[in-house]
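Morning - adenosine-5'-diphosphate inputs below, output right after.
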Amino acid sequence: MKHKKSCAIYAGSFDPVTYGHIDIIERSSLIFDELIIGVLNNSAKSPLFSLEERVKMIEDVVGHVENCHVESFSGLLVDFARQKQVDVIVRGLRAVTDFEYELQIAQSNRVVAGDIDTIFLTTNIEYSYLSSSMVKEYAQYGADISRFVPPNVAQKLMERYSGK
Ligand code: ADP
């Protein structure tokens, strides 16, 4: 029997990408043959970084993960997954606070797209407190964010908040 290549999508806003996201990317790329990192273009949210900036920042830090690539999408994640012919969505779970929200999304996705499954990777304990919004909050006040995000992202945040 021919083994079908396994492929998954890890999607999010990534505004900006953090070490927590990178950890999930590295770990899911070991589980699947191919990983698509889907960057959401959500017109309802007003992100700090443009879609192009968010894509570029991720591309710059996942070069060592050979079986992944970054794409942007708008609209429903399940539609993007179908378009890519991918039937697994990866999400990261940090704490119980993520659980209810993530469960709701995963279950409603199963209703509208029963052919697509969501799997959850629990956060590396080291990053369980980390979120893009927390990083932005710290960066805004000039705090050291080098333990939260890679240097290229820290640089972009500093520039953004210093008005450069
Ligand atoms: P969204 O806007 O969809 O919540 P995010 O960019 O905040 O997107 O997160 C994308 C995914 O990464 C989500 O599954 C989220 O739970 C997960 N995630 C966010 N931060 C971390 C972290 N520190 N560790 C592990 N997973 C995380």
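Note: The chain has one domain: 7-126.

O.
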